[in-house]
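Supplementary Methods, section 5.1.

A reviewer requested that the exact input to the structure prediction be made available. We therefore reproduce it here, unchanged from the version used in the analyses.
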Amino acid sequence: MGVPVVGCTDRAPFAKGPNDWFTGDVYIDPVAAAPPPSRVTANLVHFMPGARTHWHRHPLSQTVFVTEGVGLCQRRGGPIEVIHPGDRVLFEADEEHWHGATPNRLMVHLAMNEGDDQHDVVHWL
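The structure derived from this sequence is encoded token-by-token as follows.
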């Protein structure tokens, strides 16, 4: 028996992010959503220049890994930080934050999240 492989045609489709989650043009490419008991999901999120998330938090934390471009992120009460390819950012459980592209550059990151029956993946503020 071989390793299960999910081809790109078997994944959920690439989609534009909703306006109630993002400012500007953002595209989400779901790349991993294992069946229970796994709690992990992963999405490649493509932020066009100037686009960003609204403030939000993750009950079980979030890690983003920048793969392309130049981005910005901010934790509630903290400074705006510049992020580059290869940077990994951990947002602690329930830490309010946002992230997105700089005004003149796009940014792509792999967003890794957890959720289960007692915890939604994200709460938009």
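The chain has one domain: 20-124. These observations are discussed further in the main text.
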